[in-house]
Amino acid sequence: MRLSAATSWACAGAMVLTGCATGIGTGTGTGKVVDGGTFTFALESDPGNLDPQASALATAIQIGQFAYDHLLNSDADGKLVSGLATTWKTTDKKVVLSLHEGVTCSDGSAFTAADAAANINYVADPENKSPLLGVFLPVGAHATADTSAGTVTMTLAGPAPFVLYGLAGLPMVCAKGMRDRSSLAHETLGTGPYRLTKSVAGNEYTFRKRSGYTWGPDGIGTATKGLPDIVLVRIVPNQTTAANLLLSGALNAATVTGADTSRLEGAHLFAAKSPTVTGEMWFNQAKGRPTADTSVRRALTQALDLAQLRKVLTMARGTAPTTFTAAEPLVCPGDSITEALPAHDPNAAERLLDAAGWKAGADGVREKNGRELALTFAFDTSLLGTGGTAAAELATQIWQKLGVKVTSRPQDLTRIGQTLFSTGDWDIVWESLVPGSPDQMVPFLSGPVPPTGTNFAHIDNTDYSTGVAQAASVTGTKGCPEWLAAESTLVKNADVIPFANQAIQTFGSGARFEYAGSLVPTSIRMLAR
Fold this sequence. Notes:
14 helices, alpha+beta, 529 residues
């Protein structure tokens, strides 16, 4: 999500539900680079639990980027580069990584190969219910360490075509945090370039730069000129407020969508652009939900003019998705969506509901066996902004005309996460998974449901599972045709409907940076004002 499903090939360890391409900077990000100072960055909602292996929310992943490292990273061209590991080699079912010497944790302790192996095994254990299992780490993986040699050997249960890129998104926790997981909910214990010094939930988080850090992406360290001494992350739920703070100089960075982008572009602020799926419609297929019926899902989809919704949602800035990933460079380029989409046809939508037994009542609301066709529609206000609200209102009107009683629930990212993974009280949701490779979507599209898994929509598509098994048996991108075919089965069945892509902009004032689904801490360069 912005559930973060994954890191992109172009992400230097960014997250799912947030994978992504490295943002391309434009605007006035060319001032003189200056050392030190405070970099103030806005997030749209509070991350909640700070344990980096316990959440797939984009805000939690962003917070974790400052304090935690990954074994590997990937650069803007999708090339793997060093992280905590300096070298790596793979065979069909093994990955061997050699760790950087002298890595230390924020508490001063050494980070060892045994610590890395413990992290892998913790996430791999289904009893720990990490949402990163199956996303950044293949199911069934197990790691051992040779501490004297400084190596970690990971044994795989089966084929894992993109395993190294998954490791570029798996955060490593230090030994003290592994021993006391509860402490990670409110503090950070990692090897990253910054350490958390103060946190006020719902308000702000303060990080201070660590000295002696030399093991960042491709060997970058905190002695690099232009890195801020302090990072202040402020929670700013309103995008207009964030835009005003950027223009006044009170913020150095914020992601802004919707109408406020025009003001920021007009001021020629620096902007890092990251392609992402912004419009993605899911249906709750849990037992007893009306949307468990394929006919209902298809009818709700066919009633909508998705091109019109896309235009409203993105304020005419969006494009039609062609795959479930948008991160550039695409791992599997092609088109799994266009031909598979149920065609826009309101009359066909009415016939589908009639045939499924949902008949219009005296008040126009459809009923079946004395039960109204009443649906709860949740959508993410954090990402979608004012355009999303307008598009949601349009969709609601169309569904009401179809005879559906709709209850709209606009929610920020934190509440959306609770709705999907905790309460389950929803029927339709607009929320984006942003994977970097197609395998990172699998745990969200199949398998165990919450609370034991991440298949929040309760999808059970046999054709998709069969296609995934075929795709995963082929090495790397050679399996892309199978991955795309598997995605098409989800669209045909109206399990998931991606309908809008957009280049999301993270604006900068007095600083420039790279954005890869998350802002990359070691890319920040403070600029003279």
